[in-house]
């Protein structure tokens, strides 16, 4: 899938992803993956359904789904580089990802966010209906050790 809109390319082709750009953003600018090693980013891209946003052959956005493509999908590592924020790129990226052919009819779609609740609510995400049924293990600052 590739869509061109207002000079931006939105694509699910993992071959287009600039892994070094994604790594740079995640390791230096994200709040969730500071210090993440390049090898971990490479492996995460290889094992996920990834989407990129590009402008003039430059990676300006990224997101990935961790999914079995049958029952669940976990959305993570969503970002638009700062100079391109406020142009509606996140919303366009989300709409393409939510309607991707490999993600239809799943039982559970989930994500975690610190500050983008309003964006994700537009696509049907809500607070956990049954938080007492969810458990997690979080290894805090795993990449900063």
From TrEMBL:
Q: Which residues form the N-acetyltransferase domain?
A: 1-145
The record's listing under Pfam families reads: Acetyltransf_7 (PF13508)
Q: Which domain of life is it from?
A: Bacteria
InterPro entries on file:
Acetyltransferase_Butenolide, Acyl_CoA_acyltransferase, GNAT_dom
Name of the protein in its database record: GNAT family N-acetyltransferase
